Amino acid sequence: MRKQETDFPVSELMERYGLVRSQVYTRINALKAKNPELAPFRAGVRSYISETVLTCLDEVHRLVNEEGLTTGEAADIVAGNSDQSAADSTEQEDSLSVSPQEAPLVALRRVLQTEPLARYELLDKVAERGWRLPTGELALLLGRKELTGEAFECYGYRFTRGDEEDLEISWRVEKTPS
After folding, report:
1. Angle made by CA atoms 55, 89, 6, in degrees to the nearest 5
2. Cα-atom radius of gyration of the chain, to the nearest Å?
3. Is the pLDDT at 35 greater than 90, yes or no?
4. Which of 35-39, 96-100, 167-171 has the lowest mean pLDDT?
5. In the predicted model, what is the mean pLDDT of residues 155-171?
6. pLDDT-derived band at 77, boundaries 50, 70, 90
7. Which phi and psi (to 5°) does residue 57 adopt?
């Protein structure tokens, strides 16, 4: 691969994210493990990443810092969104034009399509961490068109309707006893 104007030096990533070198490489390697096309490349003695990889690393950084995900969990989500095959190019361009409110739904749809057990892993994490899910995200996660009532059980979890926050109702998720 040849260096282009938009490529970013790997050596500057530590300062960009406020991380040490090993942490930056842990994130790069996690993305690379999910999609080998997200690997850095060398130009002379320096390593660079493409603009696409930089965007992915920015999103991994956001997910780790703001959402509390591990590097591996964030890489799973982000690398699933960055497939660069010709068949996915159009879909990826479409996902770039979604609003910030729709972006989590797009990411969630992709994870559910590619990871058969992702639904349960996500529900476990939400229940464990005490997060509340907006109606739209929970409905998508459960494969339902709408959520009704004050409480219901599904997939071994209990969902309880919370107060109205912002523009959407949030739901508490609890694992039901076996």
Report:
1. 35
2. 19
3. no
4. 96-100
5. 79
6. confident
7. -65, -40
Secondary structure of the chain as H, E, C letters: CCCCCCCEEHHHHHHHHCCCHHHHHHHHHHHHHHCHHHCCEEECCEEEECHHHHHHHHHHHHHHHHCCCCHHHHHHHHHHHCCCCHHHHHHHHHHHCCCCCCHHHHHHHHHHHHCCCHHHHHHHHHHHHCCEEEHHHHHHHHCCCCCCCCEEEECCEEEEEEEEECCEEEEEEEECCC
Taking CA atoms, 131 is separated from 94, 126, 170, in Å, by 29, 5, 9
Structural tokens at position 122: 């996500």
| pLDDT of 93 | 39
If pLDDT is split at 50, 70 and 90, which confidence band does 110 have? confident
| 155 close to 123: Cβ distance less than 8 angstroms | yes
Cβ(54)–Cβ(8) below 8 Å: yes
Residue 145's identity, in one-letter code, is K
CB 51 within 8 A of CB 8: yes
Looking from the CA of 65 toward its CB, the CA atoms found within 13 Å total 10
Are 68 and 129 within 8 A, CB to CB? Answer: yes
